[in-house]
Amino acid sequence: MTGRLAGKIALVTGAGRGIGEAIARRFHAEGADVIVTDVNPQARSVADALGKKASFIALDATDEYAWDAALEEVLGRCGRLDILVNNAGGSAGAGPFETFTLAMHRREVDLNLTSTWLGSRCAVRAMTQGGGSIVNISSMDGLAGIAGMASYVSAKFGVTGLTRTLALELGERGIRVNSVHPGFIATPLVEAASLAIKERLGKAISQQPIKRYGKPEEVAAAALFLASDEASFCTGASLLVDGGHLAGPWREMV
Ligand SMILES: NC(=O)c1ccc[n+]([C@@H]2O[C@H](COP(=O)([O-])OP(=O)(O)OC[C@H]3O[C@@H](n4cnc5c(N)ncnc54)[C@H](O)[C@@H]3O)[C@@H](O)[C@H]2O)c1
């Protein structure tokens, strides 16, 4: 690893497992001081395993007051924040949209969109060094619809819109805001899916150019680029990491 984030202070939400954990590990390997956060207190083990220059804060990313407390802790401990990765998110399940209750819909919006809005608002206050980078983990479902996922898709499209709007608002303050859009990534979220969902995923993957699940480390590599100074002219960008899934519907002449 080459120290691409040396001297930076980075906070990652939902970093206890899956994509968030891979991002925390990669950022740490690249020299960042990493604040691992997660609603699950067991995620402390990720920071413990990283050792020096890693710490843990229990943070429910949907909770406004928890964000305020976390921000205070970060400022007290580190004096500022350079990078925020709004990764916490996910979906409780798929189904015809009219079968979802309002509570289910609100949960998806809270977990994916409101968490990102809250985190970004806090980060801006803590990016006191005249700049910073916010990376939002959206989804390919934040750029294209998918039947059976109306609430999740609405929330992830919201993350895409929030990213682009904050890029406009924060550019002059030196804060870049970009989103990463993973396709089908092999994480515990996917491993926990039902057999029927896994069969559908297998069929969809067989029709994309790179016919396999992505790895959390491949999403982390994209987040690293956008977080780092190498992306100094990128803001408001949507970076797909989806094995080419959204490049088509599959069509061929050869
Ligand atoms: N895995 C995929 O195929 C895929 C595809 C596209 C987008 N994504 C997005 O990537 C992100 C990470 O997904 P993953 O597959 O690694 O999920 P995961 O379920 O494997 O891990 C999510 C982590 O977030 C934590 N978390 C859950 N609710 C939280 C909350 N309210 N506050 C803080 N932390 C919370 C969990 O404890 C867990 O550690 C999500 O935003 C998800 O929507 C994943």
Which key phrases capture this entry?
single chain; Rossmann fold; binds nicotinamide-adenine-dinucleotide; seven-stranded parallel beta sheet; 254 residues
Can you tell me about this structure?
With 254 residues, the chain is α/β, with parallel strands linked by helices. It has a single domain (9-238), classed as 3-Layer(aba) Sandwich (Rossmann fold). Helices cover 43% and strands 15% of the residues. The protein is built from eight helices and seven strands, in the order E-H-E-H-E-H-E-H-E-H-E-H-H-H-E. A seven-stranded parallel beta sheet has the order 3-2-1-4-5-6-7, with helices on both faces. Helix 2 (44-50) links the parallel strand 2 and strand 3. Helix 1 packs across helix 8 and helix 3 (64-78) packs parallel to helix 4 (102-126). It is globular, with a radius of gyration of 18 Å. The termini are far apart. The model has no long low-confidence stretch (mean pLDDT 96). Bound molecules: nicotinamide-adenine-dinucleotide. Nicotinamide-adenine-dinucleotide binds at residues 13-14, 16-20, 38-40, 43, 59-62, 87-90, 111, 137, 139, 182, 184-185, 187-190.
